[in-house]
Specification:
Mean pLDDT: 82
Radius of gyration: 22 Å
Strand content: under 5%
Number of strands: 0
Largest sheet: none
Number of helices: 16
Amino acid sequence: MEQDTGAAAPSGLRRDLRGRHVGMIAIGGAVGTGLFLGSGLAINIAGPAVVIAYAVAAFAALALAFALAEMVAVHPEAGGFGAVAQRYLGGLAGFVSRWIYFAAQVVNVGSEVIAAGLYMQFWYPQLPLWIPVVAFSVIMLAVNLAAVRFFGEFEYWFAMIKVVTIVVFIGLGIFYIVFGLPGSEPAGVGALTEHGGFLPNGIGAVWLALTVVTFSYLGTEAVSMTAAESRNPARDVPRAARTMVLRLGLFYVLGMLVVVSILPWNQVSTAEEVTESPFVRLFDLAGVPAAAGVMNFVVLTAALSAMNTNLYLTARMTHSLAADGYAPRWFARIGRNGVPQRALLLSAAGLVLAAVLAVVAEDTAFPLLIGLALFGALVVWVLIFASHVVFRRSRARAGLDPAPVRLRGAPATTVLAGGFFVAVLLSTPFTEQFSTAWKAGVPFLAVLCVAYYLVQRRRAREVG
């Protein structure tokens, strides 16, 4: 049994997250609405071969999870991968990785709360969008302002809804493929090859689909951000990474295999409508009463779960930046309950901005923000792998014992996975959905580099 200590970490944050909280926050961050809705877009690009794209991206994302677990088990610090990047790659990497990740997650929070509002309109079509957006924002902020133990418990059960839904979906699909459903013969796996073959659009389409698929895995890095508030980070973070191996493989790869085995790939809609999700189609076939309504509830909870976790991540990232002098020290203040409340307020301001832009500038500004989110996440992932290479070399030179969990095959696996994400980043201009990544990401990256230079100059003057 875990000891209920609630002891404070050196950063002032409280170590109140149990092992099950850490594990579910990790899986909740990695499994979002991208699986329930965005999967239709990936299937449309690659056809049944989308399974290959999900499998390849899964291996790369799992390499990321293990590389992170290895590093934060040794350095369970506030700021997670950002603090590790600063330790092993220097101040510029620590500054850039944390600020660009903050920007990416703020955009994600804004898009998720807009999505949640749209899902409410499924039941209440005349409801003005701003009402559920404001209501959900207030609720999720209240959850995050509460003690981290309450946040962990809330996110545990919210993420559990997604997990149970996916397991039921896969179970129904396999049963339908092998045995059939009441009133239906076994579906078999003919849809894998009957509509233009397994690779209807060629191997190049599989690579282009990887850009969309990789976006579905964003959130894998969330496990590192819990280290400073975990009761036993050396045990809980590696355990969360290990369980993610099975769950990601099951949820993404097997889930997509079920979809393309049953549904003709060219009939899977790419529209962002809950009623046209591949999951809804299968539940309809299974005769689940009000399948669209049930799935709407699931994707609503998925959006709120992602929003909840992303608010947590942005607040901890802001606190870490402020503690290191890369943001106003005012944001480093910890409340009586161990929550960085001032840092959370900055995240809330970003939420408001992203949500407003999503409503009033959906066709202009908001696509650039989404592009920035993808660009920022991929840059952060590449920096994580670069940190891991230096981490391994530094410990080897110092003759230190291995970490409690290790990325197998490193440094080769580290370099391969990092190179994969670089290649995906370079491919984003060739996909319609994420062509804005470089347009928004490169200028923002340049701004961050200039900002770091100015911060360092100010520091030098203060010391002098």
